Every structure is written in C-alpha cells, then in structure tokens.
Amino acid sequence: MTPEQDPEQAALEQAVIAVWSDVLGRDDVGPADEFGELCGADLSTAVRVTTLLNQLLGTGLTVMKLFAEGTPRRLASTLGALGIAAPPLATRHRAADDAGGVQGYWETTYRFRNPHQQDRFNTAGWTDSTSLTSLPEKYMREWTECTVARVRGLEPRRVLDIGCGTGLILFRLAADCERYVGVDFSSVAVEQVRDALAAEHEYDHVDVVHADARQAARLTAETYDLVLLNSVVQYFPDTDYLAEVLTGAVRRLESGGTLLLGDIRDRHLHQAMRVEAAAGHDDTPVDLVRLAVEQSAASDSPLLLTPSELCRIAGTTGADLSCTPLVRRGSHPTEMNRFRYDVVLTLDDEPAPRPDTELRWHGQSLDQLLDSTGGSLVLRQVPDARNFPAVRLAEAVDAAPAGSTVGELRAGLRPVPSIDPEETWELGHRKEFGVAIGPSDVPGLVDVAFHRGHDDRATARLLARKCPQQSE
Ligand SMILES: C[S@@+](CC[C@H](N)C(=O)[O-])C[C@H]1O[C@@H](n2cnc3c(N)ncnc32)[C@H](O)[C@@H]1O
Question: How high is the pLDDT of residue 95?
C-alpha cells in the first residue's frame, strides 16, 4: 500500500494480485505489472483470470477490460470506482500445485469463492461460458432443485457422490439417506464441506473423502443403491478414464441400483452452443463467427459425449446395464439445461417395455395425441425448441460461403414445429401422464415418452436401451 492509497483500494489490488499469481503460477506479481506481458497474450489464461475475478468480486469484467486496464493497480482503481468492495482473503493464496491441470483448476476455483455465498449454497465454478460471469443465483437455485428432484426420483438410501464439490446436492439429500459418501479431488472443497457438516449431528452418517474419482470405488467395501457423478464427467481426461471410473462404480452398486451421470456435455450440441454464443447480431460476418468458435474451442475442451457413446462406454464395464438419457429440466434458459443431458444407468434392469404407440412427430397436436392415448406413447425425433434453432444455425454457418452474414443465414432457415420440454412436462402431467424426454441420436431432436399415471420414473423406462456388453 502506498502512503496515499486508501485501504479499500489496497485490498482490491491484493485480491487482483492473488488471482493473477495463482493462475500464472508465480509469486512475484506486483501492482504495476502488465497483464499482457505476464501472460504472453494467452487467451485461455485471460479467460481464466477474468472468470475468477468475476466470481470472487461479483463483477462483470470482460477479457478486453482485463487487457485494457493492464495492471493490478489500474484494474483495482477502476473496480473501486464502480463501488466494488474488496473481499476478505482469509489465507494467503499461493499457486496451486497442479496449476495447469484440472485438479489445480478446481482448487483455485474453490479458493476464490465469493465470500458472501452461504456454505451450503456455494456455487463457485458455475459460470456462463459466454459472459464469463457467475451464473445468477436464481438460475443456480432452479438448476439445483431440478437436479435434486431427479436424484430423489430414484429414491436413494445409500449414496456415493463422486465429485461432490461444494455439496450442492449433498446438503439437500444427505439428511434423508441412511448413508452418504462424498468424494472429491479438491482438498479445498472437501475441507469446506467437512467444516459445514461438522456443526450438525444430522450428518453423522455422512463422510467426505479427498480422493480421485478412480479411487472412489476402492475406498471401502460398502455398497450403494446410487452412485452419482453430477457435472463431473466433462472434467475427465478421456473416455478410458471414464470407463475405469464406471467399472469401479458398478462394483459398488447393488443389483437394481442406479448410476446417475448428470450434466453431460453433448458432443452433438457443443458446436451449436459455441456458434450461438459467437453469432451475436444479424450483421456479424460468418467468418468472424467461425474465428470466435475456433478461439473458444482452443480455450475450453471438456470431455464431450453423445448418449450413444456413453451407452457404449458403460457397456465396457461388462455389467448388465440399461441406459436412459434424459434432457435436463428447468425453465431458465441456461447452457446446462439447453445443451447438456443426464444419463441413468440401471444395473440388472428388466428389458425396456414396448410402448402401445410409437410415432415420428411431424408437428401433430400433443393435446390431441394424448387425448387418444390410453396407455403409453413414444414420439421420436421431436425438435427441441430450446436448442434446435442453434443446431440449424451451426449447420448453416458450417455450409455458408465466405462473406455471408448471420442475418442472411437466419433468414434462410424456415420455421420448423418444435416442442418446449417444460411445457410438454406440464401438459403431460395435467393430462395425468408420466413424462420422460431424452435426447435422440440426432442433434437437436428429442424422444418424448408418455405413460398413463403420474410416474415419470416408470415412464423413463420406455426410453431405456441395454448397453451393448463388451470388454475393452
Ligand atoms: C462442477 S463441480 C460439480 C460438483 C457437484 N457434483 C455438483 O453437482 O454440484 C465438479 C467437481 O468435480 C470434481 N472433480 C472433477 N474431476 C474429478 C476427478 N477426476 N476426481 C475427483 N473429483 C473430480 C471437481 O473437483 C469439482 O468439485
């Protein structure tokens, strides 16, 4: 702190320096250092720093702004002028041991959590990948409730939660289970969850273990009726790693038990998500969109899987598993419910029932179809209103000649009838059907199942398929 610097300002400067030091893996960052020189103009480093500062300070900083302000001192001064307060940094932040790896990524993410968030609703790491800002709390609350409702629908009693993170699911579920084991390879997350649990006796049956996902199945000889991997698979290095985790998890699963793989990034929809984010206004040139898509692909490379690929990998465990892909629920249009999906793998499941009626959907009225359905109905290849337009735009961008604009491509896409999944659930339930909606094998198209009664879980069985058993 310089003699004339106000303490608020100095604290903000320290916060900026802490984030830069951690991401850059160096201890010698000073208030007058230029970011562009320190990071060598590396875009993915800039994205990471921007995201962490936004999370920690609750700001809406952009990568451009980060480069433009240049030094911690100037950035802190600009943030201070916007009324942004410095967060308390409890411990001295140091560069993560595995700064460039996924584990280091998560340690850093959790260290720079927003200090104003409650321990039991700590959404550190949940970021909009376009704006690089933390997802709004109301979106995250809906996302969490939808996820918990899906898990509860499986009626778990004994849960192994691999990659439990800050316990968003654990804190909402564990009290109603007889046993709950959370595992995560972030020591910061494990400590935070343990601290929050320690205060309460209702969690005596809960353990949180610091371990890699591949070790999770070897930690005890216990068995579970649910193994949960929610929003974790995308961080695995490759499909061999995933196969190893699944093989271990299946050994810990009771017959009839389920493995829920949540929030899987869909390879089919990933390009559409990127194109949509890059497309912007109608006058954006298509070449610019392609360039932006390339850049975003270079700075973010999650493990992407289609439902069929996941089903095939589950088959390599050698276990008798059925696979039911389901779209995510939620009315707020986040990238999680538009471009990702869940998969329920059931051990030793009965063969899937056949529906009374099965149709390709061409825009027929769902009202009328349901009114004439007595038992069960499956509609195949139905455009999903939440992502089908983005899929078509991505296809058009792919095929467009140089020099065209996004507006020209949009104008060339004729309207196609589609369904909104949330409205379809509502309609089905109102007419006393269970409803299940799963991604099909065609990008942007879903399969929709209805079954008389109110049982969504039983209805989802209409969309189940056996994983082709094979050993790798
Ligand atoms: C997006 S968070 C999801 C947390 C939690 N499952 C939820 O749904 O709120 C991903 C978590 O997975 C953990 N993780 C990622 N890869 C892992 C691995 N290979 N082994 C153990 N944990 C892992 C990260 O540390 C992080 O806490």
Answer: 46
Substitution site in 235, 336, 342 for ligand 1 pocket (most atoms within 8 Å of beta carbon): 235
What residue segments make up the domains of the chain, in order of their start?
Answer: 7-115
Pocket lining: 455 vs ligand 1, CB cutoff 6 Å: no
* Half-sphere CA count of 8, side-chain side, radius 13 A: 9
Cβ–ligand 1 contact at 169 (below 6 Å): yes
Atom 23 of ligand 1, nearest CA residue: 163
* CA 405 to chain centroid: 31
Determine the Cα–Cα distance for residues 179 and 158; give it in Å rounded to an integer. 5
pTM, to two decimals: 0.92
pLDDT, tens digit, 9 for 90 and up, residues 202-214: 899 999 999 999 9
At CA 56, angle to CA 22 and CA 49, rounded to 5?
A: 45
Residue 177: closest CA among 201, 146, 141, 202: 202
pLDDT tens by residue, 304-348: 999 999 999 999 999 999 999 999 999 998 999 999 999 999 998
- Choice from 110, 184, 234 to test ligand 1 binding pocket (greatest atom count within 8 A of CB): 184
Whether domain 7-115 has CATH 1.10.1200.10: the reply is yes
